[in-house]
Amino acid sequence: MLKIGITGGIGSGKSVVCRLFATLGAPVYDSDTRAKWVMAKDEQLRDELRAAFGPETFDTLGQLNRTYLARVAFADPVQLARLNALVHPAVGRDFAQWLTARQTEGHPYILKEAALLYESGAYRQLDQIITVFAPIAVRQARILTRDPHRTPDDIQNIIGKQMSEEEKMQRADHIIHNDDAHLLIPQVLKLHEQFIR
Ligand SMILES: CC(C)(COP(=O)(O)OP(=O)(O)OC[C@H]1O[C@@H](n2cnc3c(N)ncnc32)[C@H](O)[C@@H]1O)[C@@H](O)C(=O)NCCC(=O)NCCS
Ligand SMILES: Nc1ncnc2c1ncn2[C@@H]1O[C@H](COP(=O)(O)OP(=O)(O)OP(=O)(O)O)[C@@H](O)[C@H]1O
Q1: For the chain, what are the domain ranges?
Q2: What's the gap in Å between 32 CA and the centre of ligand 1?
Q3: Hey, whose CA ends up nearest to atom 7 of ligand 2?
Q4: What is the pLDDT of residues 118-168, one digit of tens each?
Q5: What element of type H or E holds 36?
Q6: What is the pLDDT, as a whole number, of residue 185?
Q7: What are the binding residues for ATP?
Q8: How far is ligand 2, taken at its centre, from the CA of residue 104, in Å?
Q9: Highest CATH level, class, for 32-104
């Protein structure tokens, strides 16, 4: 079973591309969603987050205070590194379990979607990497529509915390262009055919 990573900066279109692969039958591990899930369920991680970032990390109902954590972590590289050091290993363990469950299901390949595949080192456990690329102006416009609570400055700040698109494209085995000039479906079909061969 091939293990394919799929990465790209905020708003590049990873989730949209993954939905296309999923319609072709490929199991997709969505690191962002799973990170949210482990932060909701893993008591040891929750204790560590509370110890690192204070009682405001969770609200009175025990839900992660994402606005607070985003403000703290995206404002300071040291705090972001602390958050990553707590969350990424927990996501890595969760992925390992998910992968074990897929091994016996007969899939030719699976996908792991993550914005920080290279930054977190997760790429080392994968066979091939796809980078989804869209120009910055297109990403900004799409994110402002998808996440109305973010300002252009917020988006620029998050982009500054991620590896450059140039480096991701250089390192990737495959690039999917998700701008207004390229159709997505033919690019996904072509890769799917390669992976099942
Ligand atoms: C800081 C948090 C609470 C902000 O939550 P919020 O709901 O505002 O944003 P959301 O999770 O939807 O992330 C929005 C986008 O920001 C980018 N992003 C998220 N975490 C990070 C990070 N640690 N470093 C750089 N970019 C990041 C991604 O492109 C992501 O899609 C949250 O992103 C978080 O817990 N991040 C740490 C876990 C992580 O690294 N997740 C990303 C993939 S594993
Ligand atoms: N080809 C496209 N045409 C129009 N809209 C698109 C296209 N690709 C993505 N979008 C939209 O752009 C937004 C960002 O896409 P998506 O959520 O897939 O990005 P992402 O790379 O997963 O982002 P993040 O890292 O923030 O999770 C979404 O609202 C999505 O519907």
Answers
A1: 1-27+108-197, 32-104
A2: 7
A3: 13
A4: 999 999 999 999 999 999 999 999 999 999 999 999 999 999 999 999 999
A5: helix 31-41
A6: 98
A7: 11-16
A8: 32
A9: alpha beta
In angstroms, the CA 15 to CA 6 distance is: 9
Nearest listed ligand to the Cα of residue 34: 1
Instruction: Tell the residue number behind the tokens 């205070």, with chain if given.
Output: 65
> Is residue 36 lining ligand 2, measured as CB closer than 6 Å?
no
- As beta bridge partners, residue 110 has 3
| Residues whose CB falls within 8 Å of the CB of residue 142, separated by 6 or more in sequence, listed in order | 11, 13, 134
Please tell me the distance from the alpha carbon of residue 23 to that of residue 120, in angstroms, as a whole number: 28
pLDDT digits (tens, 9 = 90+) for 89-102: 999 999 999 999 99
Q: Whose CA is nearest to atom 15 of ligand 1?
A: 10
* Residue at token pair 């055919």: 193
Residue nearest to atom 26 of ligand 2 (CA): 10
- pLDDT score at 9: 94
Q: Ligand 2 within 6 A of 107 CB?
A: no
Q: Which CATH number fits domain 1-27+108-197: 3.40.50.300, 3.90.230.10, 3.30.565.10, 3.40.1060.10?
A: 3.40.50.300
Strands laid side by side in the 109-113 sheet: 28-30, 109-113, 2-7, 128-133, 174-177
